[in-house]
Structure formats: C-alpha cells, structure tokens
Protein 1
Amino acid sequence: MRVAEAWRVALDALRANRLRSALTMLGVIIGVASVVLLVAIGTGTKQKVEQQVEGLGSNLLLVVPGRIEVGNAPVVSPLTLKDVDAVTRVVGDPDRVAVTVASGATARAGARSDFTTVQGVLETTPAVFTRSLARGRYLTGTDVDTSRRVAVLGDSVARALFPDRDPLGQQVALAGVRFRVIGVFAPLGQSLGVDRDDEVHVPVTAAQRLWGTQRVDGIAVKAPDRERIDELGERIVAELNRRHPDTEFSAVTQQQILGVLGDILGVLTGVLAAIAGISLLVGGVGVSNIMLVSVRERTREIGLRKAVGARPRDIGVQFLLEAVLLTTIGGLTGMALGVGTALLVDALSPIPAAITWWSLALAFGVSAVVGIVFGVVPAQRAGRLDPVVALRTE
Amino acid sequence: MTEPVAAGSRGDPSTGERVAAIEAVDVSRTYQLDGVSVAALRGVSLTVQPGDYVALVGPSGSGKSTLMHLLGGLDRPTGGRLVIGGRDVNTLAPPEMATLRNETIGFVFQAFYLLPRTSAVENVALPLVYRGVSARQRRERAAAMLGRVGLGHRLDHRPNQMSGGEQQRVAIARALVTEPTVLLADEPTGNLDSVTGAAVLELLEQLNAESGVALVMVTHDQEVAARAHRRITMRDGVVVADSAHPHSVHDRPPSVDHGRPATLISAPSAEPRSASGSGPGHPSGGSGGAAGATGRLPREVERPGGAA
Ligand SMILES: Nc1ncnc2c1ncn2[C@@H]1O[C@H](COP(=O)(O)OP(=O)(O)OP(=O)(O)O)[C@@H](O)[C@H]1O
Ligand SMILES: [Mg+2]
C-alpha cells in the first residue's frame, strides 16, 4: 500500500469517529498548550527580569555585607559613611559611588498618606543607576552635605499624595519629619510584582538623622570598564575586610545577579515545562488507550483487510499513522491554543509571556513522538491479528 | 488419490495437463483450546482446478469453514501440504501469504463484511489498494465490476443504504475485482432470503461460467449442491465423499472414524443454528456419500449406511 493511501485511510478512520478523535486529541491539545504557555510565561518572566537588571545601569558593582546567596538571612550592616569614603578612595572617582540606607516609612501630605520605602542616597545615584526624572531636579552634593530635608518622589508616591496637585515645592512628612519635594521620578513600572515607583529618595545624611543611625546598607559602584570590574570588586572587599575584620562582604556584578536569577528562573521554567510535559504524557496514554479500543472495535475490519491482501505491515502502518495523526493534529491545535493564550496573558495580565521557537518545536516534536511511542503497541497488535480469528470477532 | 486431472474437468488442450489452482494433500488443522487440542481437519486431500464449480457440504462443525480458510490462505495447516497458486504455504511468510491471497483468492462471506461508512465502489476497490493500483484505476475497475454484478447504479451507496442481496453482490464484486483464480464462498446465501439467495447464487454461477474463476462454495442447500459440477462432503474433519473421485472415497478406510463415539461426532451438530435452505428431510437428494448433507440427526444415524 502506498504511503499517501495509508494517510488517507488513517484520516478517514479519524473522521469516521469524529467525537472520539476530538476527545482523544483534547488530552494532547491541553498538554501541548500548557507546555507552550508555561514555557512562554517562564521565558517572559526571565526576559523581563534580565531587562530590569540590565536597566539598572552598566558595569554595576554592588557591595553588601554578608554573602549573596539564596536563603541567606540579611546581615545588619556595619558600614558607615566613613567606609563609603574609603571605598571612594579605592575607586578613585566619587561620581562612581552610590549608597543606600533604606527603611519603610509613612509619607504624609495634608490628609493623604502612603506607606513607602524611604531611601537615603548620595547625589550620585542617577549617574550610577539609570534613573531619570519626570519633573524638578535631583539631590545635589550640597543637599547631602547639609542634610537638607528635600525629597524626590517615585511616580506612585507622587500620585498617591498629590493626585490633583503639582508636588514640586510641596511639603511631605516622612516619619513625621517635613521634607520639601524637589523632584519626581519618571515611572519604572512593576518588577516581579514589586512596584518600583513606590520609593522616596532623600539625602543619606538626612535619612540617618531621621532614623538616628550611622548605618549604610549597601554601596554601589559603577566600574570604569567591564574588564577590570571583578578586580575592582576584590579590592573594595579587601579594603572593607581590613576595616571590619568580623564581617564578610560581597561584591557582585550585574552579570552575577543575572546568572543567579537566570538559574532560578531557568529551573522554574523547567519545572513548569515538566509539569506540562506530564499532562502531555497523560494525553499520550489516552491516545494509546483509544488506539487499543479502536483496534478491538475494528478487529473485523482488520480481518477483512487481511483477507483481501493487506500485509501485517499495511495494517500496522495504518494504525500507527492514525495515532500519529491524532497527536500531531492535537499538537498543532495545542500550539495554536498555547500561543494564543500566551499572547492574551501577556497583553491582559501583569504576567509576562514570551513565545520561544524551541518550545513550539519541542511541543510539536514531543507530540509526534508520543503518537509513535503510544501508537506502536496498538499498531503491532493490529498487524499481528490472525485474520480468521479477526473475522470471527463480533 | 492425487490424480492431476479431475474427472469430468474441462481439460486445457495446449498442455493436456493442467496446473491445479489449489492442491491439498493430507491437510490437517488442530486448534489448541485451553491446552486441549481440537482436530477440526484430520487429513483432507483435494484438488481445485481452474474453472471448477465445487459445492462443499457437511453437517455443522464438520470443518467446512476451517477448510475454506486453509484453501484461501487465511490460515495455515498444522499438518500436510497445501499448495495455492503453485506456492507451498508452508514456505511462505505472513506478508507473502497476504500477497498470495490478494492475487489468487477471492472471498465471499456469509456476513458480507463490507466496510461501514464506505461506498460500494470503495469497498470493491479495497483489494486493489493493497496491490498499489492508482486511485483512478481502482475506481474504474471497481465500477466496472459493480456493473457486472448488476450494481452499476449503486456505486456511491453505503452498505447501510443497500439490501442484503445488494451487499452480497458488492462483496462478490470485491472478491472478483482482482481477477482471482479461485472464488471461495462460505454460505454466501446464508444471510439472505430464498429469492435473493437464488439470485446471488445465479450470479456466482454465471461469473464462474463466464470468467472461468473456480468457485468453491459451502452450502447447506441440497438443491444448490446438486447444481454444482462437483460435490465434496465432509464429516467430522474428513472428506467422506467427493463426486470427482467416487471410488477413492469408498476406498478410504473408515479408520478416521474408528473408535470415535457417536456422541462426540454429534456434539457440534447439536448446536442450534438457523436452518439455511432445505430442511433435514431430503436424505436422498444427491448421490453417494453426499446424501443429506444438511440433515443433522438423521444423517448421524444413517451415516454407516450412506458411506458404505
Ligand atoms: N478457533 C477455533 N478454536 C477451536 N476450535 C475451533 C475453532 N474454529 C473451529 N473450531 C472447531 O473446529 C470444528 C470445525 O469448525 P468449522 O467452523 O470448520 O465447521 P463448519 O463445518 O464450518 O460448521 P458450520 O456449518 O456450522 O459453519 C468445530 O468443531 C469447531 O468447534
Ligand atoms: Mg462454517
């Protein structure tokens, strides 16, 4: 029998049992669609996080006390502005060094209030991190040196406190102390469910006075070039270790952060794909099941075909093609469904989703392979049927 | 008992000696049922010549269908030699058996066995699919064959849109579309009323006469059996009478029945089965051992007399 003929026979058989074929395909459709969708969500999330880490600025080096590892408890920082000065001497350029001391605080303006994160920073922040203003100006060296009570609001804070007023020049109370608004950040959006516009920048000196501390939580350095970034990090850590022998310090680059995040999200994507893969497998078992039923149901047809000259292989190929058709048609439908759902999710929800070609190829390939693997046993069984026994079967 | 030329056969003038379409020598078939062997055929020898018209008669359970399956290459003997179309089936692998069936044998079954949801012309064309004939040619040949069985106007009807007689005609067309040398029909009129059955029978006889395809037909109808050129009577897994070899049957030692209690023989016959054709009341319908092939109980009783 010719291959084209075998395809036609297989298609006819599927068409003859439309409902059953559709229900069988449903398992594969759901499996493939969920593989495509979940991989798209995993990939989309990874891409977005990477974008955001890269969007922080280039050649960044973050220096914090403790070790940067998943699951490590944060360490209370022993760093002060004196340490920052020491780091600045190592770097050699004060414009490349930024700091933060952060705490949650209630911001109040008139009758309105908003719980937000107050960050004590240096005037260098916009140069080290990529941060742009929508209105007003950023902090100056003088603001920091004189602990001036001025504040730059994140976009959501500005809108929460001043929904119908220009915030510039207005007063806000941070933890009960009045600050004057001198600028508003351009919006950054969400990242992993965190609102990045929910923050207020004030001079680090003013923040320390506000909370009665000398502490600095972390130091960020913009390295002059990418090549010597690791070496610079080592020199900074050595200097800090010299100053604080009891504390461990880490200097991490964006590349390292990306690496760690990428690993975590890669595992997450893998787990999602594996879960979806299981449902694809279940779909395959369904195909096998239905093919066995189909062989049993059409035993007489098999006997008749054999009586008129079908070879065992002809019958086997016919049933194998049927299984493969079921899974590949199901696979294509599932791909379309998965892509459609992913696009909808990406457009209508905060969850990012990005279609990757490899996930489509994989899902389709797996569904075809599932058809072959789960079709082989029923096909062989059909091919080996004794024609006399088959014809006698009711 | 393996004479090359059957008595009364129409000889081929060019060779003088004809090649048998099917030749069975001492063929047996034993089934294994839960560790117990059931001998359905116990040494059957017969030759089917091209163009023959053979009626195969015998009580229920005598092995007629089993023999038909063997003659058609659907099944293999457990003993003896079986040559179909010049090929010894013992030397053939399953795919070769399939090809042999496709090329030399046409089957007509009691229950038609048409593919449902498939048009008459596609049903008839089915054997050609396994021969690699192109779709257009298949349709042409199938349509022509349907014309020959009088269904030229029913090409695209499905089995459920046709009467039983029409369905059996489609099955006959399917059996003949490959131009086989032998047409094996196992009770082809068994599912039809007498009028329709007679028409189908007439068609088979006409096709046998016109195209020279050998026709081997199992029947329970004495009148039908009487019209065949040759009649083979089976009982209990052996041929007890063959009108082409009247003497060899008489010569055949009764050893096959030897020591076999009558209850065992009559056991399968006692199964209720729908009577087809004539009733049991015509024991003297034919000649020799074929007498009363359909009469179950009476024949069991009269067997010693009939065979001797
Ligand atoms: N698959 C099988 N397994 C076991 N025994 C079988 C099988 N097929 C047939 N037989 C036995 O072989 C014997 C011959 O059966 P067969 O079908 O050839 O009879 P038959 O002459 O065609 O009868 P009928 O006129 O009723 O069709 C019976 O005793 C039957 O029970
Ligand atoms: Mg039978």
Protein 2
Amino acid sequence: MFTSLISGTWSQLRTLGMVFLHAFRRRETVNYPDEEVYLPPRFRGRIVLTRDPDGEERCVACNLCAVACPVDCIALEKGEKEDGRWYPSSFRINFSRCIYCGMCEEACPTSAIQLTPDFEMSEYRRQDLVYEKEDLQIDGPGKDHDYHFYKVAGLAIAGKDKGQGPDEAAPVDVKTLLP
Amino acid sequence: MATIQVDGRSYEVDGKDNLLQACLTLGFDLPYFCWHPALGSVGACRQCAVKQYRDADDTQGALVMACMVPAADGSRISIEDEQAREFRASVIEWLMVHHPHDCPVCEEGGHCHLQDMTVMTGHSRRRYRFRKRTHRNQYLGPFIAHEMNRCITCYRCVRFYRDYAGGEDLGAFGANDNVYFGRHREGVLENEFSGNLTEVCPTGVFTDRTHSERYTRKWDLQFAPSVCHQCSVGCNISPGERYGDIRRIENRYHGEVNRFFLCDRGRFGYGYVNRDDRPRRPEWHGETEETVTLDVDEALDRGADALREARRVIGIGSPRASLESNDQLRELVGQANFSTGIAEREQVCLTRMRRLNRDAGLPTPTLRDVESHDAILVLGEDLIQSAARLGLSVRQAVLARRERLAEARGIPAWNAEAVMTLAQDARHPLFVAYPTATGLDDVADRCLRQAPDDIARLGFAVAHAIDVKAPAVEGIDESTKATAEHIAETLLAAKRPLVISGGSLESTAIIEASGNIARALATRGRRGGLMLVRREANSTGVELLGSRPLEWALDELTRGAADAVVVLENDLHQRLPSGRVERALSAARTVIVLDHQRTSIWERADLGLPAASFAEGDGTLVSLEGRAQRFFQVFEPRYHRPETRIHQGWRWLQALRASLKRRAVPDVTLDAVTRDCARHHPALAGIVEASPSADQRVSGLKLARQPHRYSGRTAMRAHLDVSEPRPPQDPDTPFTFSMEGYYGFDRPRREVPFAWAPGWNSPQAWNKFTDEVGGHLRGGDPGVRLLEPTEDIGDYVNEIPPPFTSGVGEWQVVVLPRLFGGEETSSRATPIMARAAAVRLHLSEEDARRLEAEEGDTLVVETSLTRLSLPLRVDTTLPSGLVGVPAGLEAALVTGDRAWLSLAPEGEEEPP
Ligand code: SF4
Ligand code: SF4
Ligand code: SF4
Ligand code: SF4
Ligand code: FES
C-alpha cells in the first residue's frame, strides 16, 4: 500500500517534469497560415486539367477518371471539334465529395487530370466546392511535360493526317494490286 | 444430344452445334471474333483455338478452331491447355499489331468485344515496334461513323451486310494487309439495317453516329427494357439515357422477335424524345394569344373545369399510345364517347385482320418462326418499308433453302461458307405482289407489279386454285390464272407456306384475299402461317379496344353533338384531311391535348398536358403478331430538369378524372391500370401476364437500371444542388433508378434492361442470358400472345373487286409507305430527316411520256380534296394508271383516290 503510493506520486511528478521539458524542444507544427506549409510535389490536393505541349486541352473526354472515382464526383460530357478531336464540353468535379485518392489521375490515359499540392480550398458554402471546367483547366502541362495523346493516337486531327503519326505508314491505297 | 469432354469433365451438348457454340452455351469464356450466332462460322480470325484430343490415350492433342469443328459425340477438348492459351494470346497480339492507340477516343470503348477479348486472353503490352498500317475513312451517311484503322479483318460486317441483310454497297476491298471494308466510294449506306453494323462489328470501325454526337459510355447509361414504338413489329430495345436525354438505342435480345437485329428506323429514330421544342409543362392557350405554362394542379383544375362545363366530351385515342393510356381515356369520357383515333379506312382493315388472325385457320408466326417457312407469298406489302424487321426475317426464310440443301449433304448449318458455296443461288420461293418495286425483289421468284385491285384478284385466284371451294375470279385473264396456279402449286408443295399481307394499301379486298388463301391452305391441311402487317406500334392493341373510328369523333364535334374533346398522343392532321380536322376542332369549345410532341394539334389546344414518350413512361403495346409487350420508363425527367411536369398519359387521365369528380388524385400504379384495362376488355385479359409486376424481386432485390459502374452520381447534377436528392423512386415497375439492384445474368429474368456479364461488356453478353446461343432468354421471352386462331375456320369471303382500269387522263393514287420519313414520330428525328430520300411522285414511263414530263419535272396531283405538287420520278416498275405518293406527306391523299395530274405551271413552288 505504502510503496504503491510512493511510486504513484513519483510517476506523476516525472510526467509533469517531462511535459515541462518538452516546452524547450523544436516545434513540429507550423504556424499556418502565417507560415507557408511545405508540400511534396506528389501531394494529392486540388485537381487540375492540364494542357498538352502544344497548349491544347489534354482531356479527350474518355470518362475513365469518372468511372475510376470511388465517390463518383466527376461528371463530364464529350464534345467534338471540327477536325474530329474529342474534348470535354463540360467537366465538373464536386470537391465536397472528393477524397483526394488520386484514382482519377491514375486512370487518365492522357495525363490530363492531375492532383496538385494545394489544399486551400475551404469555402463557407458547400455549393462553392462544385468546380466547373473553367475552374479546373490550367494553362500548363502540369507534372507531365511531354505526353501528347493525339500525336500517338490513330485519329486524324488538324495538323496530323492519317499516316503522319510516329510509326505510322502512309494510308493504304486499296486500288493498288501490288502486294 | 452429344456428350463432349471439356478439360476432363463431361457435358451434354447439342450435337448439331460446333464446339464454340457448345462451349459458350455451357458458359465457358472462350474468346472469338468472326463467329456470330446469326451468321455462322467462317474460321477467319483464328481466335477460338482449343486443343482437341482423339481419344483418352491422346496426350498431345491438336489445336483446332472451335467454331469450325462439330461438337460430335465423344469429342475431347481442352480450353485451358497451355498451348491453346498461348495460341489465343498470340492471335490477339497479331490482331493488335496495327491497332491504333484509340480506346479513349473510340465510341466502342466500354462495350467493345475486342477490348473484352484482349482482357480475356491477357494481352496487355505491345511488343511490336514497327510501323502501323493506316487507312482513310469514309463518310457513310447520318447513321454510321467509320474509323477503318480499328479493323481486325474478321469479315463480320460484310457477311452481315451482304449475305444476311442483302445490302450491296458495302464490300471488302484490297488484299492481304490492305483489306478495306467500306463502300466503293463515299456515300450513304443504302441498306435499311446498316445500324446493326455497330453491334456486329466487334471493334470501333462502325459506330453509331447519332450516339457519338452526344456520346456516353455504356457504363454511364441508364437503361430499361423497352419496346420499339416505330412500327408494329414490336422489336425489343434497350434505350440508354444520360442527363435526361436518350443517347442511343441498343438491340435487346428477344428469342422470338427481333433476336440480334433492329432496323434503322427503330435504332436511329429516337431523336424526337430529345427535341428542344417538346412540351415539358402543361400549357394553357387562352383566348388571348399568349401561352401560359401551368403547374400540375392548376392544369388539372382548369382541365376539370372545362370538362365539367361541357355537355359531352369526346375522347380520341391513339395507336401510338399505350393500351393503359387509351383505356384511361376511355374511362374518362365513357365508352360511348371514345374513338380509337384511327381513320375509318384503316380501322376497317385492322378489324378484318384481327378476325383473320382468329378464324383463317392459320396461326400468326413469330418473327423467328417466319424464318422456318419455305414458301412465301406477300400480297400488297413492301415489307422493308412497312415492317422492316419482318422483311429481314422473310429474307432469311428465303435464304434458308441453303441450309436445307446443306443438311441433305451433311454440312452443318453453321458452316456458313460451305453452305453458301453449295447452295449458290438456290432459294425458297418468294412471290411479291405490289404496285412497285420492293426491298425484297432481289430474292423473289416473281415480282408482280399490279394495281391494288389486281393484287386482290390475284390473291383470290390463288385461293381458288388451292381449294376450288374458294370463290373463283370472274373474267380473269389467262396469264394471271397461270401465275395464280403456279403460286398455288408452290404453296401447296411447301412444308410450311406463309402468306403475308397487311393494311399498307388500305384494301380490304387484299386482306380478305390473303385470308382466303390461308383458309384454303388450312382446309388442305397445310401447316402454314398468316402474317398481317399493321401500321403503328399499338394498332393491333387499340383495335382490340373496339371503338369507333376518328371520323365519327370529328363528326360528333362538327355537328355539335359534343363540345369538348380530349386528344391522346395523336396528330389528327396526319390521319385525315386538315380541313375536316380543323372544322371539328373549331366547333369544340374545349380541346385538351396530351402529347409528347409539339404537334399542330397541340398548338391549337386550349390545354396541353405534356405526356411521357416511351422513354419516360410505362405501358403495354400489342405487336402485329398479337404479342402484348410492356415497355418501361427509362428515366425520370424531373431528375435532371426539375422544372418539367411530364407524366404518363394514363397518369394524367386518371388525375383528370379524379379532379373532374372533385376527388383527391389517388396514387395509381402501372399494375393497377394494366389490371383495369385487362378487366375492361376480355380480349386483353392476357396483358397482365405480359411482364412481371412491380413487386418482382431477384434474391430480394429490385432490378438495377444502371450498370454497377455508373459514374458521376455525386456530380452530374451538382450544379443544380450540391446535396444530391434521393434517387427517384419507381412504384410502377420492379426497376430502380440507380445502380442498386440485381444486374447479373445467372438468375434468369425476363425483362433485362441491359446485358452485362463479367468479362462481357459488348452486346455479345446476351449469350450469357440465353438458354443456348441464339436461343431463348433463360427467364422466358417477354410478352404474351393474344391472338391465337380458333378451331373453326371461317367461310370464304367473296369480295372480289373488278379489274383495275385506268380512265383517260385520270390516275389512281397509291400511297407508298416509307421507312424513313413515313412515320409520325421518327420523322421528327434529325438523322431520319437527313436519311429520308427526297419525296417524289412515282409515275410509269408511259404515263410520264403521255404527260410529256421528264424525271425531276414538277407535277401537280389533284384530287377532290387536295392538291399537291411534287417532282416526278419515272418509275419503270409501276403499272400505268397509278400514281405513287410517298406516305407521311398529305393525309388527304388516300390509296384508291382518283387523281388528275398535270405539269406544274412555270414558277410553281415545290413544297419543302
Ligand atoms: S481524387 Fe479520387 S475522389 Fe477525388 S476526383 Fe479523383 S478519383 Fe474521385
Ligand atoms: S481520364 Fe483524362 S482524358 Fe479521360 S476524361 Fe478524365 S481527364 Fe479526360
Ligand atoms: S470492319 Fe469490323 S466487322 Fe468488318 S472486318 Fe473489320 S473489325 Fe470485322
Ligand atoms: S422493325 Fe420496327 S420495331 Fe423493329 S426496330 Fe425497326 S422500326 Fe423498330
Ligand atoms: S471465331 Fe473461330 S476462327 Fe473466328
């Protein structure tokens, strides 16, 4: 009984002492928002739609990001440019649902959709967390500087006719009899 | 039956099948491309390789193409064999050597057989580093898009288009690596079944252009089991919706009706559902010119007030509306005040046809059964224009001679190339009697181009030649008599003769002639069939309601015996001369119109109530074979457009009736109105059984309308409100407006919104739902048949018209049905308008010469009721004395009318 009282008191005092000593340690938290937070480049935050090296919209409206999204918070519709190029005529992400899992980015075959190191998206109204295409589209290529889907796809677009892609033979002439 | 061993286990299979069919029927996932259940095997793609062993001691085995080897009793095969697997994986790899990097921008993606097979064989990395072959595409018209780079040279497209559907303008060009599938030069694909290329082609070469414009992946579409509303055949369809619009129509397999194929009107004619100008809220067009849009309660109040004030209310039904809606209208106005909304001349034909279906002694075959008849006589129908899918079945019946010949030589029916080579041009006999050329002439034995009365006389003569007790035709000329006798002999010689006729020429004489032939065949004990073509999706059903024709309704209004009218989904101007319709409507004090289209009648109604189209409503239709089939609501229009107030016709009418009686509007369900309708009309008692009721559950679950990968649920309407509403509830059907619910294939069910099975995203997934490939749905084929023949054969009818003679300077009008543009609703769809041929007046060469008119000259056709000017088409097949007018142009022109023709005076405007 007496010994347990002694050891209990000692334990309490020791704890108090240790907590007190922590006041002199280096700080782990940052003084946000007065101080900036460092985020690694692959941090998964606000989603953007990027452009290809030629400055054209990268997204081809394939809908793979939408189907990959576990919370179904992406909705977009396909449009077609005059030259046959597919693009999203509308693109919406409901960030009030997004869990920043990055599945959309992983599914995207064109590197169009990318997550960025930005988490400062709070709003007072939940409705303001619904981002439309103009809120998502950025001007640069994001993390992937080179990929250009239409260059390697078989579709002909303005400036790249059939047979002009890399590793493409000139279109077949069906009228020839030569093998 | 045969016993085969697959990977060491024994199975019972049909010995007439090939190994591929047998394996797929057993449920194995064996990849394939060039084989198709309806087209047979050619062994072109080499994808279906399996190991076959001679006997139990054979451990080596040999690779064979499963689709080219009969499932003979005692066969031993292995699908899982290492070599076979490797072989199949390399075949895919070869096929993909030239395949473009297109999936993200390919309309086939997500329901692509090539994707499925690639995943199934495990090919995932491209090893080939050299140059890819490329092709140029062609413009193929408003229906089909072409992206030739994606071809894997399976030859399915040309085999369907040429060998199955009889098209001539699609071919395979080039040789070896250069093979090209397209037209000899750019242009619209001419065949009426071109849309099936989008499902037959296992890749994205041929895709649905109308869908591409507002593209949605298959996994994002909401589907419901539906029935095509574009003609009377009753093909089953799966319409897909997204964002409140129908995006595409897919074939829905029905083992007895359409099976794998639809016609282009059915597949591409849905655009009227999406029209911007559709009425979406009730409209009040008062005395002041202004239109007021109303909410539901206001609309009902105003409607009820107006009807309450009326002395007598007439109800005009519609053969393009469901039985339930028509019946509710009848309930609202009372049997004594209800009209079917069908013009008298057409209704008379419908009644005759219904009687013949019962008492002509021969049953009505299903479309599938049509294909097993071996001699066919078509009287007065151009099937490809009036009931296209039936025409395609008739073509198969005629070509089936090949399989009979092959059978006699022990060649299995699935061995397509061998069967074709053996049979060459051998065909079952087909006779077509019609005023002008028809779409089946290329496979017909004899095409008899005659005036309607002469067609009827020929028919009566055939009946007489089969059975002398049938009335003889007076004053028949020798050559007609010889033809009739030849036809009679051919029909008698056949195992299963089939007579097809219908209401297209609106001649009761032709219909009765076909009835006499049927009775004669039945009397002579032939196991034949009689098929009678109706015009609209529910013509057969609405006739069974047994009410008066449209003329009666208009007359009641005109003579003041009634002062209010409720018109249900019916543009009366399409049925009777505008003057007559206008007179009746202006005589009425109150005109209430329910429709899903802004028709000319809607515009002049006092109150317009926006009714559901097939996409937003449920109901029952009766097809030309007397099959009652239910179609189900595809989507809830208010989910994406909250301002809309679209409801099913029957729901509006039920509510209007309650408001009229100042009662609270009750919650009615589809099942209740269907039961009511069945109770009111003994002939329709069977419709309750047409599909399962709303309380059907599979393992306790409702059935899902959306595929389980449906995306965007929390974003698609987030711009309206970030908090998603509860998904719409559906008390009327066993389906949910969500992905929650059963969607699999292994619990048999009759009504399947969309076909999907693990690993099978393309339409080939239907093979998982059938009892054997190309067989019947395991849960039973949808619908019930209402018109079975009775035991007693009716008496021969003696209504033989005198032979046709053309007066001098006088012509007889023949209205020619048109697949594209000749039907009320589909002709409001943009792609159909684009596809419809320019309207022309048909005139024989001789008559054109007499009028000194040349091809393209504008002619004026005048009857006692109307006047119309159209450019001339010299039709070398038309007998002289007739003038052919395309259907859907002018309701005042009716087959049989007398008409006068003249060259249009200089400067007369052509109509658009
Ligand atoms: S990060 Fe995840 S939750 Fe957010 S949009 Fe992408 S897939 Fe959806
Ligand atoms: S996956 Fe990429 S290319 Fe496809 S729709 Fe999404 S962002 Fe666009
Ligand atoms: S176009 Fe399609 S159906 Fe025709 S051969 Fe090529 S892949 Fe086969
Ligand atoms: S045949 Fe008739 S029912 Fe069938 S798809 Fe064509 S229009 Fe529709
Ligand atoms: S499916 Fe057997 S070879 Fe093509």
